[in-house]
Specification:
This protein has about 280 residues and is an alpha/beta fold. The radius of gyration is 21 Å and the shape is elongated. A five-stranded parallel β-sheet has the order 6-5-4-7-8, sandwiched between helices. Helices cover about 45% and strands about 15% of the residues. Strand 1, helix 1 and strand 2 form a beta-alpha-beta unit. The two termini are about 20 Å apart. Helix 3 runs parallel beside helix 5 and helix 8 crosses helix 10. It has two domains: about 130 residues, Rossmann fold, CATH 3.40.50; about 130 residues, Rossmann fold (3-Layer(aba) Sandwich), CATH 3.40.50.
Length: about 280
């Protein structure tokens, strides 16, 4: 008599995903592991074309000595804007003549795709601390440093660079905003409080802040925090994301070794397998 095959690790589990950009792909990963994906996109990226103009001008006029890219999405957005203006080749030429630093593998991949070799790439966990460590061997006094932010400005980084004597050129290719339709987020808040969510996965700090902003509008921030600490396995893709969750009064349960969503889903699946009493 054959043994029954093991149940998929997320079988019967309801997994909330707050990712906006790759929600379909991530939902499919959850389904493959037997779970039910609850998709609640939490972020809308609003382009800032004026900042793209500043980026192009800084690089084509050789006004910067160092360029720091914090995300792959931000680097891609800026280079795409340069391409639409017919300035991409000049921008890339400018990047090849200065020191380029990348926070993590995603901006690194963008630079390599365009034939730019960064001099500095951070090590895990790819936070502001690692960016500053990577720049430690460079005398920044009097240097002009371009910081390509993401949906919000990394003030800790820019203040630290100024403390080292750098003159900062800041560009933010897009801003983070709430989705135009927040109904899925409102539904998720209510489902979590009602005990109908088994896990909630965060891939950026803004996802957590937007979730709790909606909860506050529903006068439900405290009940949501209590429910997440009591009933929900909370996953954070990395330490920065985890800190935002803690700031909301919730303790993350799972932080994967590799800072990507596929690893986070796999780590949550492992968590359920290890803690399942059956």
């Amino acid at each position: 008599m054959r043994d029954n095959p093991p149940m998929p690790p997320l079988s019967g589990r309801r997994i909330a995903l707050l990712e906006s950009r790759k929600s379909d792909e991530l939902s499919e990963l959850v389904r493959r592991l037997g779970g039910t994906a609850l998709s609640a996109p939490s972020v809308r990226e609003v382009p800032r074309h004026d900042d793209a103009d500043a980026f192009i001008e800084a690089l084509t006029t050789r006004r910067v000595d160092v360029a720091i890219f914090l995300t792959g999405v931000g680097a891609t957005a800026l280079l795409d804007d340069a391409n639409r203006r017919g300035q991409q080749a000049a921008v890339l030429d400018g990047l090849r003549q200065i020191t380029v630093a990348c926070r993590g593998p995603k901006p690194l991949g963008v630079m390599r795709r365009f034939g730019v070799t960064p001099a500095i790439v951070t090590v895990r966990p790819h936070t502001t601390h690692e960016v500053l460590d990577g720049l430690g061997s460079i005398d920044l006094h009097g240097k002009r440093v371009l910081v390509a932010h993401y949906g919000e400005r990394s003030t800790d980084l820019t203040w630290a660079l100024r403390d080292r004597g750098a003159a900062i050129v800041e560009v933010c290719p897009y801003e983070w905003a709430l989705p135009e339709d927040v109904t899925p987020l409102e539904h998720l808040v209510r489902e979590a409080i009602a005990g109908h969510v088994d896990a909630m996965l965060f891939t950026s700090q803004i996802q957590c802040r937007h979730l709790f902003k909606i909860a506050a509008q529903l006068d439900s921030a405290a009940p949501l925090s209590a429910a997440m600490n009591r009933d929900v396995v909370v996953g954070a893709v990395g330490p920065v994301c985890a800190q935002a969750i803690r700031d909301a009064g919730v303790t993350p349960d799972v932080i994967p070794e590799s800072p990507n969503m596929a690893s986070l889903i796999a780590a949550v699946a492992d968590y359920f397998e290890l803690t399942d009493p059956t």
